[in-house]
TrEMBL record:
It comes from the Eukaryota. Pfam families: ADH_zinc_N_2. GO terms for molecular function: oxidoreductase activity. Residues 14-312 form the Enoyl reductase (ER) domain. It comes from Aspergillus ibericus CBS 121593. This is NAD(P)-binding protein. InterPro entries: ER, GroES-like_sf, Lipid_raft_assoc_Zn_ADH, NAD(P)-bd_dom_sf.
Length: 317
């Protein structure tokens, strides 16, 4: 099989190599293993950052980036779940998608983007009647989050570049804000929502300024849920520790702050896949690159301007 591997840390265009690796063995006997022929892989911005920063550990061998995929079952051991034993069964990662009518490029985003957006929604307690700000509404997670918030009956304010306004409005936002049109986004938010504060801020970008000034436009019982690392890994770590643990009497912000990364779960993937099957949710795809062009795909995601998922098509058939 072919795979892009990283043998050292650095920019993707200089450290990724397209290699030929041994094909995994066919599961036999009572094995619970499932062999999947990968169709599409969705890239994560965080992975691009890890490729640059995280050193190779001794004795670990080359690293194959990314975990979010769609494909089909090739073979399975007798100990595998019954729904995964038939060759040709379409899957998202390792979860059956019930033959939902969706293209495999979109399906490859169910686990990472779908699970993360769902967890943000639930953590923020978004419900009918709430007014919610989604920062990064045109991104891979934000675009799903906007739709999930609308399904909950919330009023959604979407923040993104003006170039993506049409796309974000098409997702159903009630109000659109072009962050590039304002010298200070927090000042604009204070002007717009100072007398009618937001119930929740869901930040897919990682803007420290939005949280730091949030008392001016976020309800006292509201919270900021963040998954972004806009300011880099070290600054984000410092900010998270300060935001979560610095007492208000020492200058801490008097609003709740939650930062998390999330491991995709089967239950979340199934729930999101069902919404897609019912036509109530879609996962926007920014672009699809061939296997040979995976480095260009990482260049695209590194711009932070992708509108939805950036996908690598592994199979040419």
């Amino acid at each position: 099989m072919r795979a892009w591997v990283r043998k050292r840390c650095g920019p993707p265009d200089s450290v990724l190599e397209l290699a030929t690796l041994p094909t995994p063995p066919i599961p036999t006997g009572q094995s619970s293993d499932v062999l999947i022929r990968v169709s599409h892989v969705s890239l994560q911005y965080s992975t691009e950052m890890l490729i640059r920063m995280i050193p190779i550990l001794p004795l670990t061998g080359p690293w194959i980036p990314e975990i979010e995929l769609s494909g089909e079952v090739v073979a399975a051991g007798a100990g595998a779940p019954s729904e995964l034993r038939d060759p040709g069964t379409p899957v998202v990662a390792f979860q059956n998608i019930f033959n939902a009518a969706m293209d495999m490029a979109s399906a490859s985003g169910i686990n990472g983007s779908g699970s993360t957006a769902l967890k943000m929604l639930r953590t923020g307690g978004v419900r009918e009647g709430h007014t919610v700000l989604v920062n990064g509404a045109s991104g891979s997670v934000g675009s799903v989050l906007v739709q999930l918030c609308k399904l909950r009956g919330a009023k959604v304010v979407g923040v993104a570049s003006g170039a993506n306004e049409a796309m974000v409005r098409d997702l159903g936002v009630d109000e659109f804000i072009d962050y590039r049109s304002h010298d200070s986004l927090p000042a604009y938010l204070a002007h717009q929502f100072g007398d009618k504060p937001l119930d929740c801020i869901l930040d897919c970008v990682g803007s420290q300024a939005i949280f730091a000034h949030s008392p001016a436009y976020l309800k006292p019982e509201g919270m900021v849920v963040n998954i972004g690392t806009l300011e880099g890994a070290w600054a984000t770590t410092r900010n998270v520790l300060s935001n979560m643990y610095l007492p208000t009497w020492l200058g801490g912000v008097p609003r709740r702050y939650i930062m998390f990364s999330t491991t995709p779960t089967s239950d979340s993937a199934v729930y999101v896949a069902q919404l897609i099957k019912e036509g109530r949710l879609r996962i926007p795809v920014d672009s699809v690159f061939s296997m040979e062009d995976a480095v260009r795909a990482y260049e695209r995601i590194a711009t932070k301007r992708a509108r939805g998922k950036v996908v690598v098509k592994v199979r040419n058939d």
